[in-house]
Amino acid sequence: MLARNEHLICSVELGGQPVDISISRTRRGDTPVMLLHGIQTNKDVFADWHQSSIGEDCDFIAIDLPGFGRSGKPGQLSYSIDTFATAVLAVADNLGLSKFHVVGHSLGGMVGTTIISRPGNRILSLASLEGNLIASDCGTSATLADCDRNVFRKSGYQELRESIRDSTSPSSALRLAALELTPADIFLSTAQDIVRVSDTSDLEKVFLQSSVPKLMVVGGESGFHSRPSSDACKTVEIPETSHFMLLDNPTTTMTAVADFWAEIWQQK
Hints:
Largest sheet: 8 strands, mixed
Distance between the termini: 22 Å
Structural class: alpha/beta
Order of helices and strands: EEEHEHEHEHHHHHEEHH
CATH architecture: 3-Layer(aba) Sandwich
Strand order of the largest sheet: 1-2-4-3-5-6-7-8
CATH superfamily: Alpha/Beta hydrolase fold, catalytic domain
CATH topology: Rossmann fold
């Protein structure tokens, strides 16, 4: 099927108010795959997926979560993992998708795992790229979660961006551009909820116990702690790669996910 690239705005209701969700969609086939970004990026982190040769039968749908990228940023919304999960399901409803696969990086992996935990799960498979399962998986969010909100607004957020600007990481340019679109208050609220949910270890239980096929992808140089393994989940490591594997080593990361899909689809 000839790929069709679309940029869409999908209006959903969250917390009793309409929120516009920005979407990039590439349709090569009829297998829907939701692509969910992390806290320091937005849907642009999946640009290589839209242009790659993997997923020839896939319908790639990259979403800017509420508060991020070009999606709406209402002041009274709760910027929590639970809200993001509700937003993803609302987008799926809007697009007429009863079930779908998920690839989620960091925060996006947590959102995918949260959706699996809900009654009537609609996720067919989850590839979590270092989506936190336990407290020790937290990185930058853990160092920022206790920051006074006024201090973070005044200087903490700028210091974070300056540290990224001074980095030689391949991910730094996209992360900086993404953070320019994310307000300080939304970033901090999201970071705090990442830490809160990670502290409960509830997502680890879901990841280990759910029968949904799951893959955890870990960067070999990231320091990420979790290495889940059960009948329905496994872990692969991408060598010489940081937490931002989608930007450090996109080809190897995409190949790991494509191999996972091939394995589970072959079992059908």
